[in-house]
Amino acid sequence: MLFRSTFTYAYIGATIAIFVLARFIDAFGPRVSVVSAAIAMAALVFLGTPGMAATTITVVAIVAIACSSATHQALNGIVGGFYPTAIRGNGVGYATGMGRAAAIVGPAIAGNLLSADLPLQIVMTAIAAPYTAVIVICLVLDRLQKRISADSQDRKSTRLNSSHITISYAV
After folding, report:
1. Which pLDDT does position 168 carry in this prediction?
2. Contact predicate 83/91, CB 8 Å
3. Per the confidence metrics, is the pTM higher than 0.85?
4. DSSP string, 75-104
5. pLDDT of residue 153
6. Which of 34, 55, 77, 161 is the 20 to 30 A CA-CA neighbour of 19?
7. Closest by Cα among 146, 129, 127 to 31
8. Selection from 140, 128, 149 nearest residue 31 by Cα
9. Closest Cα to residue 107, out of 126, 91, 90?
10. Are 17 and 36 in contact (CB under 8 A)?
11. H or E segment and range at residue 119
12. What is the DSSP letter of 64?
């Protein structure tokens, strides 16, 4: 029964986490999702600590699942903003497909690591390692978004200046 309730709490936590994360991303940009990814990574590594009480494992697992899920959902939302409207569905579809591929390959790799009789600390660290790439991706997307915003601001000011010149010549 504890196992079932752990997943229930984790997905309730993930739902709350994605709403909170979405508000922060709107306010501060994609770099905020780095925090969620880092918490997920730390929680996964911490799960490899031997001798933890069942309650501690449950709480840390809930945090890991909630932050991991929130980060992935946030990335799907962030990626959509980088594609033109006409192909936005394709871009988000590719991002979702990459996530699905990782969801297939990840457990296979974890299973192989566990079957190799490696210590749980090493296995959990290996499971958490891809979050380093997720953190880098979040930072790159934040930088791209800033660059795109700056370029669009430059274009707006250029259009305003050129229309001003046109109006002044017309008068």
Report:
1. 42
2. yes
3. no
4. HHHHHHTTS-GGGHHHHHHHHHHHHHHHHH
5. 72
6. 55
7. 146
8. 140
9. 126
10. yes
11. none
12. H
Q: From CA 35, how far away is CA 135, in angstroms rounded?
A: 8
Q: Which residues contact 11 (CB under 8 A, 6 or more apart)?
A: 65, 66, 69
CA atoms within 13 A on the CB side of 58: 12
Task: Output the CA torsion 14→30→80→157 (10° steps).
Answer: 150
Non-local (6+) Cβ contacts of 124 within 8 A are 44, 45, 46, 47, 48
Nearby residues of 115 by Cβ (< 8 Å), 6 or more positions away = none
Q: What does DSSP assign to residue 25?
A: H
Retrieve residue 160's tokens: 């305003």
> What is the block-wise mean pLDDT of the chain (171 residues), using blocks of 10 residues?
71 89 88 92 93 90 91 86 85 86 90 91 92 90 84 66 46 44
| Total count of residues recorded for the chain | 171
Report d(CA 66, CA 154) in Å as an integer.
39
Asked whether 63 and 43 are in contact (CB, 8 A), the reply is yes
pLDDT at 104: 92
